[in-house]
């Protein structure tokens, strides 16, 4: 959705109220649920196939609704920063353009992305991302009446400033900072931390993805095929659905998504001790009974996995993981 800025290349950003990828994820989940319900209805593995088909069709239809609603309701505006200045164009009927010499100051304000887990006492805070344009001359307001909807009084500023909230454009923070540094070096003021660039993926993130994958694949395969004596269509559909969700989650972890990494760390710190205690108790019961050496391999592997999950969850709280996630979330 943005052109990669290299040297002094223009930067174009499509500003919409909702990220398209969030819409796609919601549609995929709704469609997946519909398919999971539909498969046993088609294969005859349900007592009411007609009702299951109706419910499945409803979920599949709902899966098409979010993209259509996003397409029709979101304002497809384009913010462009280049060597001439900054301009906005799109379907909202209020395009405008400003050259750099017309501005005395350009302030880019942004907060750090929230990588913590929200709670009732401390809910997640939406990021604040905003461009504030301060005119260089008093006649700017008369020259740009098309920008009147952006004008606001600012304490300590002569006249008015023009505020442009960018909403959920968190991943464009780095590119916008690069563009303003390149195109408006004399008037650009950064109101936020200097987002680091070129950070390597922390090794603990690699370990977390490998560990969860190594557990999920055999566990889901066993649950899908062994429990049903070969795996019927309904079990395969359900297993495929949850595996797709797990793959999407791990892809976001690998890419440095703050929410995905934070939730994996929280789940690992919660499930690791639980799995460790349950498997240790199970192994002790087997060793005190008639369990053979081969039978003890499963709880032993479970103990190792629980310990590894706990350690991984604790390591995901490291400062270098947070720094990398924040940089990735802000386009670096």
């Amino acid at each position: 959705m943005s052109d990669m800025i290299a040297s002094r290349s223009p930067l174009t950003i499509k500003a919409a109220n909702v990220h398209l990828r969030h819409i796609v994820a919601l549609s995929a989940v709704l469609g997946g649920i519909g398919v999971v319900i539909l498969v046993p209805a088609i294969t005859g593995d349900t007592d009411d196939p007609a009702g299951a088909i109706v419910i499945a069709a409803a979920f599949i239809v709902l899966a098409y609704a979010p993209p259509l609603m996003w397409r029709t309701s979101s304002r497809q505006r384009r913010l462009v920063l280049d060597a001439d200045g900054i301009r906005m164009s799109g379907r909202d009927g209020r395009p405008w353009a400003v050259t750099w010499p017309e501005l005395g100051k350009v302030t880019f304000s942004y907060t750090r992305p929230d990588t913590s887990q929200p709670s009732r006492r401390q809910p997640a805070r939406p990021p604040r991302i905003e461009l504030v344009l301060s005119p260089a001359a008093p006649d700017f307001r008369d020259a740009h009446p098309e920008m009147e909807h952006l004008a606001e009084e600012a304490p300590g500023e002569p006249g008015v400033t023009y505020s442009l909230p960018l909403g959920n454009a968190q991943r464009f923070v780095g590119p916008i900072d690069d563009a303003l540094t390149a195109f408006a070096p004399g008037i650009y003021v950064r109101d936020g931390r200097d987002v680091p660039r070129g950070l390597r993926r922390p090794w603990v993130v690699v370990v977390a993805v490998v560990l969860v994958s190594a557990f999920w694949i055999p566990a889901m395969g066993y649950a899908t095929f062994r429990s049903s004596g070969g795996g019927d269509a309904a079990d395969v559909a359900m297993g495929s659905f949850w595996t797709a969700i797990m793959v999407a989650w791990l892809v976001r972890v690998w890419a440095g998504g703050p929410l995905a990494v934070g939730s994996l760390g929280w789940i690992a710190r919660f499930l690791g001790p639980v799995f460790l205690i349950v498997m240790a108790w199970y192994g002790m019961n087997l060793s005190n009974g008639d369990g053979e050496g081969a039978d003890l391999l499963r709880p032993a592997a479970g103990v190792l996995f629980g310990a590894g999950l706990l350690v991984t969850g604790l390591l995901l709280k490291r400062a270098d993981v947070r720094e990398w996630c924040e940089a990735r979330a802000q386009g670096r």
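The radius of gyration is 26 Å. The CA atoms of residues 20 and 71 lie 9 Å apart.
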